[in-house]
Request: fold
Amino acid sequence: MYALVEILGKQYKAVEGQTIQVDHINDKKAGDPLEYASVLAVVDEKSAKFGTPYVEGAKVQASYIGDKKGEKVRVFKYERRKGYRRTQGHREKYSLIKIDHVIA
Reply:
């Protein structure tokens, strides 16, 4: 059984027992429980429920694991024959959450 859940404006596939990487969640400590009621679809072996826009009564319970930094992104601007070169970069912050239960 899995669910499609909306977390911070993005959609993720939530499978019980799986750890997923989502956008950074502020002010949480390791082990804090999370609950999301914005479930778009619940798919079982035999059936599937789709919401308009959300499935009524469906929830995803998760626990917060911690933070992680993503890969380094380099931005390089260049114009030939002008002497113009600019290098800039950043690393995005992500949060790791473990899906505990999918309640249909």
Observations:
- The chain has a mean pLDDT of 96.
- The beta strands are 2-7, 10-15, 19-23, 33-36, 39-43, 48-50, 59-79, 84-103.
